[in-house]
Amino acid sequence: MSEREVIRGYYERVIAADFPGAGAIGDDEPRIKAVEVRGCHGNTQNLLFFSANLDERGLLALRYECRYCNPTMYVTAELLHELLQGQPLARIGEIGDDELVAALGGTSRKVLREAHVALRLLREALEA
């Protein structure tokens, strides 16, 4: 399966589920800047933010907000939401390529690159 087919297949599932991890992040909520990528329409910045509700067990709720995002950014956000929601914080550092590829349903270098950046920034923000 081509990278384009992998991204498209996951994105179609995200659309069908009505973007389950998406949600507006209020001004009073912590906003974690996870990924910033140039190159969408008109060379604008694609911005991905996460907000996490934590307790001693880990990530109770994780949601994201995209600005000017392309489909790949939504795929990355939903993929991480799926893998991290309700998990202990240590789980952020345990997710590797094999698990990302399995959850995605195939390999996408672009999604893997964005996911690695987002995971690193999430881990740094939540461990601070």
Model description:
The structure is a single chain. The chain is of the alpha+beta class. It has one domain (3-127): Sufe protein. Chain: A, CATH 3.90.1010.10. The protein is built from 5 helices and 3 strands. A 3-stranded antiparallel β-sheet has the order 1-2-3. Strand 1 and strand 2 form a beta hairpin. Helix 2 packs across helix 5.
Short summary:
With 128 residues, the chain is of the alpha+beta class. Helix content is 46%, strand content 22%.
What topology emerges from the helices and strands here?
Elements: H1 3-16, E1 32-38, E2 45-55, E3 58-67, H2 71-84, H3 91-94, H4 97-104, H5 109-127
Antiparallel strand pairs: 1-2, 2-3
Helix pairs in contact: 1-2, 2-5
The main sheet orders its strands as 1-2-3
CATH class identity: Alpha Beta
**In CATH terms, what is the architecture?**
Alpha-Beta Complex
Looking at the structure, the CATH topology is: Sufe protein. Chain: A
Succession of helices and strands: HEEEHHHH
Helix content bin: 40-55%
Oligomeric state of the chains in view: single chain
* Count of individual beta strands: 3
**Structural class of the secondary structure composition?**
alpha+beta
Provide mean pLDDT, rounded.
Answer: 86
As a percent range, the share of strand residues is: 15-25%
Q: What is the makeup of the main sheet?
A: 3 strands, antiparallel
SS summary, helix count:
5
| Total separate domains | 1
* Overall 3D shape: globular
Low-confidence runs (pLDDT<50, min 5 residues)? none
Features:
128 residues; alpha+beta; Sufe protein. Chain: A; globular
